[in-house]
Amino acid sequence: MKIFSIVSSVLVVLWYLPATALAESQYTALLNSFEFRNLGPFRAGSWVPAIAVPEQPVKEHLRTFYVAARTGGLWKTTNNGTTFEPMTDVQGIMSIGAVAVAPSNADIVWLGGGDASNTRSAYYGEGVFRSMDGAKTWQHMGLKDTQHIARIVIHPSNPQIVYVAALGHLYTPNEERGVFKTTDGGQTWKKVLYVGPNVGAVDLVIDPRNPDTLFAATNDYQRFPWTFRDGGPGSGIYKTTDAGAHWYKLAGGLPGQSFGGHVGGR
Fold first, then answer.
1. Are the beta carbons of 131 and 137 closer than 8 angstroms?
2. pLDDT tens, 96-150?
């Protein structure tokens, strides 16, 4: 996972460099001369489930971004990944599945607790957390019983609207799973996509040009002390075009039988 962390950081920096700062023909030369090194976090925390990047840099040519570690908390860099600072040690938030920055306000950062890999060593989390000051302080915003959050999506222009994709309990059925939505910055939540007590939402994306359109991936999956069920009829890809009010399951080329697939190691 160290390689993933390094390559992800490099791609983030290159993607957000101003177009005038680096001609397209220079990308190859830059990558060929780049000396790869581990930017951190290291060892147990180097399994990186999510990276979040603000829309605009705080300073010209100095990119801020966040790196969420599976069991190592949240880390922040303000100098393109040269150094990192831990942002959740005081709060005790260690196991993380998702991180997101509001596109319209870089000070608003959301965290989803719980390792979302579905492995037998996946530590559960405490729900969702929100920071209004660039990850300096945090407030718990609910959804504690989701335990494992895989993705957080923030509306491109209204930071009060947030969607959360939750896997739910790892070893037992529960109803606090699927896709949740808030329109008041996390004060209240509505479950907008729920397939069943053993089906969690494992991924979620929003169309930034038409934010009423979202796609969610669900995983029908359950662990037992002696084995695990690696998929089922509840797995699929769902689409909404009315901001989560109604969803329909996509077909047309996708597997028609029960499917799923394991995420991470066993």
1. yes
2. 999 999 999 999 999 999 988 877 778 888 999 999 999 999 999 999 999 999 9
Q: What is the pTM of this model?
A: 0.81
**Looking at the domain that runs over 48-252, which CATH code has it been given?**
2.130.10.10
Residues 6+ apart with CB under 8 A from 242: 212
User: Measured between alpha carbons, how far is 69 from 245 in angstroms, rounded to an integer?
Assistant: 32
Contacts of 68 (CB under 8 A, 6+ apart): 48, 49, 50, 51, 52, 74, 75, 96, 97, 98, 99, 111
- Domain limits of the chain? 48-252
- Inter-residue long-range contacts of 72-79, CB under 8 Å, 24+ positions, other chains counted: 72/41, 72/44, 72/45, 72/46, 73/41, 73/45, 74/99, 74/111, 74/135, 75/40, 75/41, 76/134, 76/135, 77/39
